[in-house]
Write a structure and sequence with these properties.
seven-stranded mixed beta sheet; single chain; alpha/beta; two-stranded parallel sheet
Length: 227
């Protein structure tokens, strides 16, 4: 299987090389913050190397903002967690949501439960808050951040719990099982602007789908081996 995949990759690289000089123009793309340290560098490096004449305009923001920019036509493609119900959505995968805390977090029995939250609305945290409320568990906002970096800093410092997919998880936080309600899965979604037909944007979408699948397959296979 590994050799078969490599043969297909070589074939794709040959085709991309032939196409590289024929694609130009601008592609406007958006990435949710969870992908900044994971998939985003892979996609940008691969596409830019193959299609140097295409100019990329990249926006990084929270998923709901990016989806709104797809709806208004300000972006061509958007990669987010959540938003699979939208007509612009193409489902790539699903990831389990986890309760996440610092290794030394001690306040999980505290009432109300301290939560470190991403700037709302956030598709990753809504299921956690709804699960707490359904279980009759009180919670409070210990910290709110507009950036994922700020959220991880708060969780790492033990300020509170959060809920996210295990994607680009920092080394100083961990998934935890504290007897809290299960959270289910969150979709990985690539949104395309309505009536998108530009060959450069379509090719960017294809490469994004391919590298997301490769990254998730390799990351979670490695995690399974370590466990």
């Amino acid at each position: 299987m590994r050799y078969a995949r490599r043969v297909l990759e070589l074939n794709d690289e040959m085709i991309d090389t032939l196409r590289g000089s024929s694609l130009a123009g601008v592609v406007r793309i958006g990435f949710g913050q969870d992908f900044v340290g994971t998939v985003l560098p892979l996609v940008l490096a691969r596409f830019s190397a193959l299609y140097p004449l295409v100019k990329l305009e990249v926006t990084v923001d929270i998923g709901q903002v990016l989806i709104q920019m797809i709806d208004t036509g300000d972006l061509d493609l958007v990669l987010t967690l959540g938003g699979a119900q939208k007509k612009t959505a193409h489902l790539l995968s699903e990831l389990p949501l986890h309760w996440i805390a610092s290794p030394g977090f001690k306040d999980w029995e505290e009432e109300p439960l301290p939560m470190a939250l991403f700037k709302p609305p956030c598709s990753c945290q809504t299921p956690g808050l709804e699960a707490l409320e359904s279980a009759g568990r009180a919670w409070r906002v210990a910290m709110t951040s507009p950036s994922l970096t700020g959220l991880w800093a708060a969780v790492s410092a033990g300020l509170g719990l959060t809920t996210r997919a295990e994607l680009g998880l920092p080394t100083d936080v961990q998934t935890v099982d504290l007897g809290l309600p299960p959270l289910g899965n969150i979709p990985v979604v690539l949104h395309r602007r309505r009536n998108l037909r530009a060959p450069n944007a379509i090719r960017f979408a294809e490469i994004t789908e391919e590298l997301v699948a490769t990254y998730l397959r390799s990351t979670f296979a490695r995690a399974a081996l370590l466990s």
